[in-house]
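INFO batch 0412 | record 1 of 1 | parsing
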Amino acid sequence: MVAKKRNQLRTKAALRLNQAAETDPVDVAMGPQVEDPKAFLHQPRETKKEKMYNKSHSFLTKVQQQSSLGAGISKSALRRRKRKLRDDLKPKMHDLLVSLEQEGVLQETMEHGQEHDNQSVTKIVAAKNLSPAHSTPAESGSIVVKKNQPNIRNQKGAKILAQKETQRFSTVLRDQQFQQNPFAALKEVIKMQK
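INFO prediction complete | emitting C-alpha cells
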C-alpha cells in the first residue's frame, strides 16, 4: 500500500505540472480579453500597493524639494547664517556714530577740545582682587571689570541688571553735560563702549 500511495502522489504531481504547462500557452494565445466594465465595481480603483507607492513617492519628492533649498548645508551652518542675519538687523552703535558725524554734532565737539579726546578714551582693566582692602586705585578713565556681575540669562540677574540700568538712566538724565548737549554725551558713551 505504501508503494501504491507513492506512485499515486507522483502521478498527481506530474499531472498538475502538465496541466500548468498546457494552460500557459492557451492564455498567451488568447491574448487580451475585453473585460466587463461593471465587473469589480465594489473594489477600489487603486490597489493597496499603488496607494503605498504613491504616498511614499509624494513624500520623497517633498523631502527632496525641501533638502534642495538647503543645498546640502548643515544645520549648524544654517543657524550661523540666521544668527548673522539677526545681528545685521539689530541697531549698531557704529551707525549711530556715523549718523552723528553726518549731522555735524561730532564736528562741534571736536572743535571744543582736541586734548579732551585723549583723556576720554576708556581703558578696561580686569579686577584681580575684589576686596576693597587689597585693591589699588584705578587709573583715571578706566573701568574695573568684576567677575561677580549678575547674569542677564537668569531671572534674578536680569531683574538686578534692570534695576541698575534704571538707576544709571536716571543719573544720566540728571547729568548737566547731558542736559546741555545730549548728542555729545551719546558720543562719549559710544566711544566708551568700543
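INFO post-check: The chain has nine helices and two strands.
INFO record closed
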